[in-house]
Amino acid sequence: MVATAGTTEREGWSSRTAFILAAVGAAVGLGNVWRFPTLAGENGGGAFVLFYVGCVFLLGLPLVISEIFIGRTGQNDAVGSIRKVAEKSGAAKSWSAFGLLGVAGAFLIVSFYSVVAGWVLYYVGVMGADFVGALTAGEPLRGALVGESQEAIQGRMGDLFANPALLLAMHLAFMGVTLFIVARGIGSGIEKAATILMPMFFVLLIGIAIYGAFVGNMGEAVAFLFTPDWSKLTPQVMNTALGQALFSLSLGVAGLITYGSYIKGSAGLGPTSVTIAFADTGVALISGLMIFPIVFAVGLDPAAGPTLVFQTLPFAFQTMPGGALIGFLFFVLILVAAVTSSISLLEVPTAWGIGELGWSRRKSSLTFGTGAFLIGIACLLGYNVWSDVRLLGFWPLFAETDILDTVDGFTGKVMLPLGALFTAVFVGWKADRNLVEEMTGLSGFWLGIWRFLIAWLCPLAVGAILVTGLFPGILGG
Ligand code: PFF
After folding, report:
1. CA–CA distance from 273 to each of 23, 62, 65, 423, 472 (Å)?
2. Residues forming beta bridges with residue 4, ordered by sequence position
3. Among the atoms of ligand 1, which is closest to the Cα of residue 337?
4. How many Cα atoms occupy the beta-carbon half-sphere of 307 within 13 Å?
5. 30 CA closest ligand 1 atom index
6. Which of 351, 469, 409, 360 lies closest to 99, judged by CA?
7. Nearest CA residue ID for atom 11, ligand 1
8. 0.90 cut: is pTM over it?
9. Is the CB of 345 under 6 A from ligand 1?
10. pLDDT tens, 18-58?
11. Count of Cβ atoms closer than 10 Å to residue 266 Cβ
12. What's the rounded Cα separation, in Å, for the pair 238 and 240?
């Protein structure tokens, strides 16, 4: 049943495990399996990766605790929750405005997220059809797309991009599933999806990673991903790495404030947050170790950009035993991860509509789901009919980027770090200390460390990276 605001008790997770599964589901997504390898490849590997991991644990983890703290204390949508914490702490209620920034960010992200997930859906279809072909030919263990040349396989992505109707159909299907789950609510929608899909995700991930370790060029991949060339760590690369750490952990757009607000019982936030951060980073690294051995084994360019995963892997699966099956399962894996994340993204504005505008869940999810769908259409047209459009062309940082990359870049490089900055200053400096202690369950040594990171390191580091990344000229470079 669809609950309406104010008429029934607010929804919530059925258990701590349910929350962890949903939060890990939100964190683990296209950001790990598609965006992380893409960015690691484009930004030169090792130095980016190590800086990224540093961002996750020194900046991301304290922010995970902070966002969940706000949600759990506020028991409301992002804006309402921040307002509540501000009230309880004697701080100005206008702090809740940064919740609105998060709502807007999540709404924008889900619009292009669904387009990219649509590409994944298309590849599930392509690889699935190929596997069925292998089965009917009595060769279940053959490679993928046997008989197609490398150009033909890589050309599939170009064909897809040149076909707005196909892109639109995939985007529509994915957004439809997202909307369907979110409209069903927390218990029978989001929690149910997470408890079914996340175990499935991990089984697939481990299976494919073991397979990859046997067939790929692991040595070169490990060297690429973990040997730092610090000269490559420019302010822009740091900005990208920080943005990616925030994106991957679902921070800065109130995703964890919103999910945290559905926690009912009491439990320490430290261990829960550490679980989320480790699971998320582990999956990103495993994805890198799954993709780059194959990239190097077939001599492809690691800096290929957003098409890396789609153009590289189907070709690589061709030469591998069982590639037809594994290729299919690989794209199913990405799709599963994308669903549990996109529902968390759509939930942010949906909860806001319910909490602040008094809408029913059905109306709120439908409104924001449709709105995001429409913006997504502009993103996908940016690959064909609107390929010349440069939304923020006046800004050197976005002078060359198409519509999808602009929305992705603007949310990732500007909105997420800003949201994170406000969260850190608010929780580190404004929130009542006793309330923080009570609601996070942190004490002693760990409380001290966390407080230092959130009050000092996060605002300074995030602020510095934001300024130098966005205005490269500032360092004279
Ligand atoms: N963390 C997701 C990913 O890595 O794909 C993306 C995301 C989900 C960002 C939810 C923000 C959010 F609130």
Report:
1. 9, 8, 6, 16, 33
2. 360
3. 5
4. 15
5. 5
6. 351
7. 250
8. yes
9. yes
10. 999 999 999 999 999 989 998 999 998 999 999 999 999 99
11. 11
12. 5
